[in-house]
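Query structure, 489 tokens:
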């Protein structure tokens, strides 16, 4: 793209000023529409060092109420960020519905920089590009407007600007070693940037090359494209997105009705013997996981009163409390609901060497949200692939992902509901919503069967825990966890 790019003709100064003032006013006028339509706008600014991204950005944001935008500079990764998946620090920056996020630098700068300096192999680089295309597509599929700008200047212009900045002691600090290296290796960088732009130039999130030789002209181009992009997004409204074909290898899974719950039980003696043995083994493995910096993500779903809490308690009883966290997932908070539905799970991912346990998960999208009408059919149908992509990102990062469905039959659930309702110290565990959900048992069972069928991937498989006898389910969960950890180690 950069190699084939041709500079457009810049208007005369008088006409340029008129266009600029008009566009500034139009952007200011769009603010309330963006807010009312709850349109999240993500603006990515990339380009050559000294191309003027910061100064243009400073002028653009003057036209927007500061309560409705944020600016982030994606500088060098922190030590904390280095222990999270590649997309983590970018996903957490996405804006709320009705607001803007401006990124000075992005995943492009990070990936191309590492590739240029030999920190990423060709294969790793291609995997990153695939992750980026997926990330941007997921955002646009879920209603985000993603606008990506590359500020372009030639080698001589960059050198001239760098020299000018270096001559003044008050601006010398603005020239980084990266800028100097980039100008010295301009042709090499041009080759990589051109390839990156081509590989990530998608119809729903295209790249726009900005002629950055003149700052006012650069601002005019950016505003013109941004305002028109917002207009298009607002006029399109909610558009159904094509459902992608599943490309993930799946394991065959039985329907819930086909899973036998009989004879899946342990005596008290067997239970305590196995529990002691498994917890001691898991405690040792936890130390090794930490030493080798391997993250573990355990996801729990299941029927109400199936025994998820007690199951989790037996796992955490073996772990060092400094190395794990349990995330009970309830209805999303307003700031979570205003973002991509996976955002609140990206923000809860563990560091390398740590364990995250989710009591309810991202699968709410294809169960509760599906059945209660909290999202459209297009949303939940699309989510199977989005979830598989999310979990693939986690396993590519190096995480062990284990998903448990805790299974009981309808009669056992009724017994446990009744026991909770009649026992004062257990009454907090039972709600009117639990009873309402029970009435929809058959609908939920259909949804769960489809969920298991479409997301039981070879890299992040489902394990059904037969929990009519809670003791049996607890030991089975511990043994599966131990087996998966040992397999990785």
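Result returned for the query:
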């Amino acid at each position: 793209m950069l190699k084939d790019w041709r500079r457009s003709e810049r208007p005369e100064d008088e006409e340029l000023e008129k266009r600029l003032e008009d566009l500034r006013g139009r952007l200011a006028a769009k603010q309330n529409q963006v807010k009312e339509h709850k349109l999240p706008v993500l603006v990515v600014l990339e380009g050559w060092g000294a191309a003027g991204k910061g100064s243009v950005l400073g002028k653009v944001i003057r036209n927007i109420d500061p309560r409705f935008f944020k600016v982030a500079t994606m500088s060098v990764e922190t030590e904390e960020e280095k222990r999270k998946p590649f997309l983590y620090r970018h996903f957490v920056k996405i804006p709320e519905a009705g607001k803007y996020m401006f990124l000075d630098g992005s995943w492009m700068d990070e990936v191309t920089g590492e590739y240029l300096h030999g920190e990423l192999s060709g294969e790793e680089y291609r995997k990153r590009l695939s992750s980026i295309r997926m990330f941007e597509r997921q955002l646009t599929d879920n209603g985000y407007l993603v606008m990506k700008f590359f500020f372009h200047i030639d080698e001589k212009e960059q050198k001239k600007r760098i020299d000018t900045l270096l001559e003044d002691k008050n601006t010398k600090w603005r020239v980084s070693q990266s800028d100097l290296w980039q100008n010295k290796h301009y042709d090499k960088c041009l080759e990589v940037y051109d390839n990156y732009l081509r590989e990530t130039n998608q119809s729903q999130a295209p790249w726009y090359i900005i002629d950055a030789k003149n700052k006012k002209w650069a601002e005019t181009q950016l505003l013109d494209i941004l305002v028109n992009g917002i207009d298009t997004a607002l006029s399109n409204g909610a558009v159904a997105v094509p459902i992608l074909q599943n490309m993930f290898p799946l394991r065959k899974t039985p329907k819930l009705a086909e899973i036998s719950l009989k004879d899946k039980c342990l005596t008290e003696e067997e239970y305590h013997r196995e529990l002691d043995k498994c917890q001691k083994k898991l405690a040792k493995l936890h130390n090794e996981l930490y030493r080798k910096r391997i993250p573990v993500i355990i996801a729990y779903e299941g029927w109400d009163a199936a025994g998820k809490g007690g199951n989790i308690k037996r796992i955490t009883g073996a772990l060092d409390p400094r190395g794990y966290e349990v995330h009970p997932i309830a209805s999303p908070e307003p700031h979570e609901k205003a973002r991509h539905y996976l955002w609140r799970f990206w923000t809860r991912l563990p560091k390398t060497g740590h364990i995250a346990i989710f009591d309810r998960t991202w699968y709410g999208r294809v169960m509760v949200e599906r059945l209660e009408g909290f999202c459209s059919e297009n949303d939940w149908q699309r989510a199977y692939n989005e979830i598989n992509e999310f979990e693939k990102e986690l396993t590519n990062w190096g995480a062990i992902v284990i998903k448990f469905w805790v299974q009981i039959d309808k009669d056992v659930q009724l017994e446990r509901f009744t026991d909770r309702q009649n026992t004062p110290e257990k009454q907090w565990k039972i709600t009117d919503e639990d009873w309402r959900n029970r009435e929809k048992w058959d609908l939920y069972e259909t949804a769960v069967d489809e969920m298991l069928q479409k997301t039981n991937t070879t890299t992040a498989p489902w394990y059904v825990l037969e929990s009519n006898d809670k003791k049996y389910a607890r030991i089975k969960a511990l043994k599966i966890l131990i087996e998966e950890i040992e397999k990785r180690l």
